[in-house]
Specification:
Length: 319
């Protein structure tokens, strides 16, 4: 019942989430968001907080600051122009909000730069990922309202040669029933860690299943990054906040080499069918597992409301 209630709330709030995320340079009143969701301002405010874990005002401020941080690292506009383009009315208001979140002024954040030197292309990729991922980073593995749907799709399996990929992950030992909640909690944590430390993001968020037992499993939700990282220092209130919330973010690598891959279309809860298809294909080809599989979230549920249009790539290293 609780899952269906949360899912129903997500279905109602998603238009307001998308509307707010697309208008960060505007002052969007609560009445406008509630109109998009066809709810009263009071009910929209309460439902929004239940789904997103933050109020509409907090959501908008977080996205504005995330976008501003990416622009400071990857562009040469003045701090004032960055502030104005992200919806702040003055340099002073922007600086106070930025310092509270990142523990330093916008100017100091820009001067510190990326934790590892990033070229123009990497900086642009980072900015694009921040813009796309920030609104829905806690919504992956959400289950929409309604009865469970069975996926009858056929899977096209492709063997790829993957390059090693540096990542940031958090490891959790959990029950199967906790997968969705764990991913929804951990990915925002990793995303904030990368931004706080000036680590360039480079691809889709993912979750790797490194040890699966009959009762418990080890899951590693994470984010792809541009290179091996040595996190830059963070000070002030942001440092104290992060020391309490980082929750074991560590540097790791998705392995390179041959892997069986496929694309799953639809609900996250039927992803097991994609893994089963990969296992069957590997057996038919005489291939053995060479490591833990992972799933990459190509489609953002915050942007694409219809579950049938969600896409998840599943990769399984083989030998």
């Amino acid at each position: 019942m609780a899952r269906r209630t949360l899912a129903a709330r997500f279905n109602r709030v998603q238009p307001a989430l998308a509307f707010a995320a697309a208008r960060l340079d505007e002052d969007v009143p609560l009445a406008a968001l509630s109109a998009r969701a066809r709810l009263s301002p009071f009910h929209l405010h309460r439902m929004f907080a239940a789904v997103a874990g933050e109020t509409p005002k907090q959501f908008t401020l977080r996205l504005r600051l995330s976008r501003a941080a990416a622009l400071l690292l990857g562009g040469d506009d003045s701090v004032l122009n960055v502030a104005l383009s992200c919806g702040f009315l003055s340099h002073e208001t922007f600086t106070r909000a930025f310092r509270r979140r990142f523990g330093m002024t916008p100017r100091a954040y820009r001067a510190r730069g990326f934790a590892v030197d990033a070229g123009v292309g990497e900086a642009a990729t980072h900015a694009a990922i921040v813009k796309r991922i920030a609104p829905c980073v806690g919504l992956f593995h959400v289950r929409p309202d309604g009865a469970p749907q069975r996926s009858d799709m056929s899977y096209s399996i492709v063997k790829k040669d993957l390059a090693p990929q540096p990542v940031l992950v958090v490891r959790r030992r959990i029950k199967r029933s906790e997968i969705a909640a764990t991913i929804g909690t951990v990915l925002p944590l990793v995303f904030e860690y990368a931004q706080q430390h000036g680590i360039a993001l480079s691809g889709h968020p993912f979750a790797r299943y490194s040890d699966v037992g009959p009762g418990l499993m080890t899951i590693e939700p994470g984010m792809r990054v541009a290179g091996p990282v040595k996190p830059a220092s963070v000070s002030g209130d942001a440092a104290r906040k992060m020391s309490a919330t980082e929750g074991g973010v560590v540097e790791d690598t998705l392995p390179g080499g041959p892997a069986a891959t496929t694309i799953h279309a639809g609900l996250y809860e039927s992803l097991s069918e994609a893994y089963a298809a990969l296992e069957s294909w590997m057996e038919s080809q005489g291939l053995q597992s060479a490591g833990a599989p992972w799933e990459s979230y190509i489609t953002d549920p915050g942007e694409v409301p219809d579950p049938k249009d969600w896409r998840t790539e599943v990769c399984w290293p083989v030998r």
